[in-house]
Amino acid sequence: MVRSVPLPRRPDGPVRGWYENELGWATVPGEPVRLSVGDRFDVLEVPAEAGRAALGRRAPGFPVALYDRTDGEEREVGDGRRMRLLVAAGSAEELPGILQWLEWGALPLDLTALGEGSLMEAPLPPGLVPGRPPGMPVQGAAVWLRPPVAGCEVEASLPTVSASGGVRDAPDLVRLVDTLAAHCHRVRLRRLAAQPLAFS
User: Fold this and answer.
1) Does 167 have pLDDT greater than 70?
2) What does the domain layout of the chain look like in residue ranges?
């Protein structure tokens, strides 16, 4: 009995093609293009304001995406922009323990993680939107602030609990989480202070 080997799936469209052909990342069928989280990377998600403050002094390295969600309820809560930072696979599972160890666990932080089994909307590849500088938000779409580099081993540069598994300059996940938590807490306090006082 001769078994036939299925032909490789040909990506349809430039976004899916960039992820599958240039980065070698699998995409999930359907629109919009989505990436499977947990196999090659996990994701930390924070308000963009907190993410910008936390990463402001860090050298470029691991991939970071900006999501513009400026509709409905999010206008009331903040500007609706969220930042997603790619971290080593398995980091989402470690996040609650890290926050507890750092004594951030009891505070309501707007810091979440996407891990195994989650899906992430694929940010637009760099240069896909003509005339728009890299990292400039597109309403309703995700864009890369720090895109993954095609042909490089992206996973080796991702923040991990033990940076010894990555490249020499790979950020330490615990330090990154501590910095993000501090900035998320500051953003929350600023938003609370800006709300009008309710008198009964």
Assistant:
1) no
2) 23-191
